[in-house]
Write a structure and sequence with these properties.
The chain has 369 residues and is of the alpha/beta class. It folds into 2 domains: 183 residues, Rossmann fold; 176 residues, 3-Layer(aba) Sandwich (Rossmann fold). The protein has 13 helices and 13 strands. It has a 6-stranded parallel sheet with strand order 2-1-3-4-5-7, with helices on one face. Strand 8, helix 8 and strand 9 form a beta-alpha-beta unit. The longest helix has 20 residues. It is globular.
C-alpha cells in the first residue's frame, strides 16, 4: 500500500504541522514492514500549492491531507468535495490544522474517511451542540466567567451522522524533538534520579506566553493572566518560577525556561488555544507533577491525562488551584508517583508503537474508538 502526504513539514512556517508529520519519517521502516505502507511526502503550504501539486500526479491508494489553518473554509470544503468526486475509491484522511477540539473545516466530513484532530471531544454527540466561541472552553469563559470573546470563534457545522468521522489521531507531543528528549538515556536517568533522591529547588513552574500584545484582552490572555494572579500569593511562602509575556517581549529565555522546568516539583499548565499544550508533555518528560484545568472531556494521544494517576485536574475557574498545589507540596511522595506515572505513560506510547497502530487501523478502515 502506498500513501501520499500533502502538507507542510517546515517548522519555521508552522511548528505544529511539522511535528504532526514527524512520526511518519522516524517510523518509516516500521510502517513499511508492519502494515506494509510506503509513502511519499510533497511539501505544500497554501491551498493553491496543494491543488497545483495534486493535478500533476496520479494519486495512490491513500492520501493524508493537511491544509494551513488560515485557508478559507469554503474553499477547502469545495476542494475536498471535488477531490472525492474525482477519486471515489481514494482513502482520504484529513489532518485538521486547528488546535482546538473544534474546527472551521467540519464541512469536509461528508467527503473524507476520517477527520483527524490532535484532541477530540470524548462525546462525539457534543459536536452537534452550539458553543459561544465555538468551543466548550470559550463557552464556559463567556457564560460563567463573563469573558469578552470579541467575535473570536472556531466552529463550523457538523452534519448529524458525520460526527463519527471525527477521530483523535496523535498530537504535537510525538514530534522528533520531544521524542528524542523523552527517550534520551541522559534525560531518563537524570530526571529519575533527581525525582527520587534530590529536592528540586523550585516549587511551582508556570512560565507562560500571553499571545499577541494586540490581543491582550483575549480570552486566552485573560485565562492565563488569571492563572498567574492566582499563584502570585504563594510567593511569600513558596519558591515560584512564574511569568507571562507577549510575543516579541520575551522576559524568560528558552534556556532559563528549560532549566526552571527541570528543577521544578510542580508544573501548572493552563489551557492554550486548545486543552492539551506542549507544557503538559514537558512536565511528563521531566517527571514534574502536572496540575491543569480538568480535561476529562477530551481524548488525545499520547494520553497522559488520567485524573489523579498521571495528572491532577483543577476547576476551570482555578478556584482550587492554590490549595491543590499546597496539598501536593506537602505530600511529595504522592506527587512524585503521579509524575512518574505520567512519564511512563508517555514513554509507553513510543515503546508500543501506538502511532503505527493508529495508521494501520486508519488505512485499513478498522479504526474505531
Amino acid at each position: 500500500m502506498h500513501a501520499l502526504l500533502i502538507g507542510n513539514i517546515d517548522k519555521h512556517l508552522d511548528d505544529i504541522s511539522s511535528a504532526l508529520f514527524d512520526p511518519f519519517f522516524y517510523e518509516r521502516t516500521t510502517l513499511a514492514q508492519s502494515i506494509p505502507l510506503t509513502f511519499e511526502h510533497l511539501q505544500t503550504f497554501t491551498l493553491d500549492d496543494i491543488q497545483a501539486t495534486l493535478t500533476q500526479r496520479r494519486l495512490p491508494e491513500v492520501l493524508f491531507l493537511r491544509p494551513d489553518w488560515r485557508e478559507d473554509p469554503s474553499q477547502v470544503v469545495d476542494f475536498v468535495a471535488t477531490l472525492r468526486q474525482q477519486h471515489p475509491q481514494l482513502r482520504l484522511l484529513f489532518l485538521d490544522p486547528w488546535d482546538q477540539t473544534t474546527s472551521r473545516y467540519f464541512g469536509v466530513l461528508p467527503h473524507v474517511d476520517i477527520l483527524w484532530k490532535c484532541q477530540r471531544l470524548k462525546d462525539r454527540a457534543a459536536y452537534l451542540k452550539t458553543y459561544a466561541g465555538g468551543h466548550p472552553i470559550t463557552d464556559y469563559f463567556a457564560n460563567t466567567l463573563n469573558y469578552e470573546l470579541d467575535k473570536w470563534n472556531v466552529s463550523s457545522v457538523v452534519e448529524p451522522g458525520y460526527e463519527n468521522r471525527i477521530e483523535a489521531g496523535w498530537n504535537f507531543a510525538i514530534s522528533k524533538k520531544y521524542r528524542r528528549q523523552l527517550l534520551s538515556p541522559v534525560n531518563h536517568y537524570y530526571s529519575r534520579y533527581y525525582n527520587r533522591h534530590t529536592k528540586r529547588p523550585i516549587d511551582i513552574f508556570c512560565h507562560l506566553s500571553l499571545g499577541n500584545l494586540d490581543d491582550r484582552n483575549s480570552w486566552y490572555a485573560q485565562h492565563r493572566k488569571h492563572c498567574l494572579a492566582t499563584l502570585e500569593p504563594l510567593q511569600s511562602t513558596r519558591r515560584l518560577a512564574i511569568s507571562g509575556d507577549y510575543f516579541g517581549q520575551r522576559t524568560v529565555s528558552s534556556r532559563q525556561y528549560q532549566r526552571d522546568i527541570r528543577n521544578s516539583k510542580i508544573v501548572v499548565s493552563p489551557f492554550g488555544w486548545g486543552e492539551a499544550t506542549w507544557r503538559d508533555y514537558e512536565a511528563a518528560c521531566h517527571r514534574c507533577l502536572l496540575i491543569k484545568p480538568s480535561i476529562e472531556h477530551i481524548y488525545t494521544q499520547p494520553d497522559i491525562f488520567s485524573p489523579g494517576e498521571t495528572y491532577v485536574p483543577v476547576r476551570w475557574d482555578l478556584a482550587d488551584l492554590t490549595d491543590t498545589c499546597e496539598y501536593y507540596l506537602q505530600h511529595p511522595d504522592e506527587a512524585r508517583q503521579i509524575a512518574e506515572n505520567a512519564h511512563n505513560a508517555y514513554r509507553r506510547y513510543f515503546a508500543e508503537k501506538q502511532f503505527v497502530k493508529t495508521i494501520r487501523d486508519a488505512v485499513t478502515g478498522s479504526l474505531t474508538r
